[in-house]
């Protein structure tokens, strides 16, 4: 969430920054303009009344020691009136603050000045590439055909169980998914210094509000219903481990000496994919349920961009170890996610599509999420708490990594070779035909 005071004092500057995203983003701030103006006037009036009350209290204290009881009583009456006025203004200001906050919850983050200009993904900038696309002496098949021929992917039975956009992994497919999870967690904990976390997969609405999914993107979520219809405490299935892991430190003050803090978590993720009708209807690319290993970092704001580069390198290392061809793309301002200030997408090559597809999105949020979730740190003992910066990224989306292996490592005889780094986890160097 944006800082309401900063927005009020730098309104045109804020609107110009939001306009880099889109005109719609800038318009999201318009309903707040009148409230921010009223807030500024009310703050000034409240502070003036508070000063008058404090002066009256001091004068009354002096009069209480003197002989003029009438003056004392008169001043006490004035003080009561002033106190009542202050309480009234403070209540109005609190109500106004809540209204401003509610409106700002629907306003996206400001793009970092270093983010390239642009309006769509066509304007994103390729920053680097790893490896080269393999050449085949046969026509590469899409992963759903490769998986079906190997007997490891089953969409028909998944549809029977749950409907469209679900899958069943059989045998070597299930083992490959499990191997990828173990490999990623070991890499990030043993070599990259992350602490592994296993959070709940159901969270309260407050957690989703803290990371920015609510209130704007409720249609993308799966919401549960208690058996008691009168129980208002509905829980949501997490769309990403970012939500529970980031909120682990919600409403906390961290010791600055412990920053950066780095956590990794494997979780299933659940998304309704609202608005994606007709997109990626086949295969594992866009599912209602999928597995992911997530990286989350809590850092000092001045270190956010350097830490973003580090986090992105950790996600890339997974693909490097698996010897999968990929590229890193910096998102332009118009393609940024709602809460991100800067994002690098890692896109893996899919030979059947002759295209790169996103396998990880690594983002810095600045203090945007920290303000919503009240995540602070104390830079020094007894120092005033400050908002932390949060970062996260997939490292990696397990299903899409499985897709990349099936497609990039398919062989002419229909088998699929397993990357060397994964063999100790998978237990074999290939997936044979049944």
Describe it:
The chain is of the alpha+beta class and 434 residues long. Helix content is 41%, strand content 20%. It has 14 helices and 18 strands. A hairpin with a 4-residue loop joins strand 12 and strand 13 (355-364). It is elongated.
Task: Output the keywords.
434 residues; alpha+beta
Point out poorly predicted stretches: none
Count all strands and give the number.
18
* Morphology call: elongated
Report, as a whole number of angstroms, the end-to-end distance: 53 Å
Question: Helices and strands in order, then pairings?
Answer:
Blueprint: H1 4-9, H2 11-21, H3 23-27, H4 30-64, H5 69-104, E1 125-130, H6 143-150, E2 153-154, H7 156-162, E3 168-169, H8 172-191, E4 195-197, E5 202-203, H9 205-211, E6 222-223, E7 236-237, H10 242-246, E8 252-255, E9 261-270, E10 289-299, H11 304-321, E11 326-330, E12 342-350, E13 355-364, H12 368-373, E14 375-378, E15 386-387, E16 389-397, H13 398-408, E17 416-417, H14 423-426, E18 430-431
Helix pairs in contact: 4-5, 6-13, 8-13
Please provide a brief summary of the model.
Helices cover 41% and strands 20% of the residues. It is built from 14 helices and 18 strands.
């Amino acid at each position: 969430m944006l800082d309401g005071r900063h927005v009020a004092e730098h309104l045109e500057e804020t609107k110009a920054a939001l306009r880099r995203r889109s005109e719609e983003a800038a318009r999201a701030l318009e309903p707040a303009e009148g409230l921010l103006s009223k807030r500024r006037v009310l703050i000034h009036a409240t502070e003036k009344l508070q000063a008058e009350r404090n002066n009256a209290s001091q004068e009354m204290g002096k009069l209480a020691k003197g002989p003029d009881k009438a003056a004392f009583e008169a001043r006490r009456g004035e003080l009561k009136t002033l106190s009542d006025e202050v309480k009234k203004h403070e209540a109005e200001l609190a109500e106004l603050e809540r209204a401003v906050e509610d409106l700002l919850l629907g306003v996206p983050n400001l793009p970092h000045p270093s983010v390239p200009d642009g309006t769509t993904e066509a304007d994103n900038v390729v920053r680097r590439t790893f490896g080269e696309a393999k050449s085949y002496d046969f026509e590469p098949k899409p992963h759903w055909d490769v998986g079906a021929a190997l007997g490891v992917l089953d969409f028909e039975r998944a549809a029977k169980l749950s409907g469209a956009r679900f899958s069943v992994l059989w045998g070597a497919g299930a083992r490959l998914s499990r191997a990828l999870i173990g490999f990623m967690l070991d890499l990030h904990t043993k070599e990259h210094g992350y602490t592994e976390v296993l959070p709940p997969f159901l969270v309260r609405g407050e957690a989703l509000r803290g990371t920015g999914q609510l209130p704007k993107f409720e249609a993308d979520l799966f919401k549960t219903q208690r058996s008691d219809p009168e129980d208002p405490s509905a829980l949501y299935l997490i769309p990403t481990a970012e939500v529970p892991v980031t909120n682990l430190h919600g409403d906390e003050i961290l010791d600055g000496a412990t920053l950066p803090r780095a956590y990794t978590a494997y979780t299933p993720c659940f998304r309704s994919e609202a608005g994606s009708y007709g997109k990626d209807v086949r295969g594992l690319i866009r599912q209602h349920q999928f597995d992911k290993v997530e990286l989350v970092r809590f850092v000092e704001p001045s270190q956010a961009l350097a830490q973003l580069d580090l986090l992105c390198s950790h996600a890339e290392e997974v693909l490097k170890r698996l010897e999968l061809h990929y590229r890193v793309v910096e998102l332009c301002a118009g393609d940024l996610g709602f809460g991100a200030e800067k994002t690098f997408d890692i896109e893996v090559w899919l030979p059947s599509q002759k295209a790169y597809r996103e396998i990880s999105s690594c983002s810095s949020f600045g203090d945007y999420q920290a303000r919503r979730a009240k995540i602070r740190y104390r830079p020094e003992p007894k120092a005033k708490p400050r908002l932390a910066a949060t970062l996260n990224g997939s490292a990696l989306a397990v299903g899409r990594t499985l897709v990349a292996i099936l497609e990039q490592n398919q062989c002419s005889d229909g088998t699929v070779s397993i990357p060397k780094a994964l063999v100790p986890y998978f237990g074999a160097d290939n997936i044979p035909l049944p």
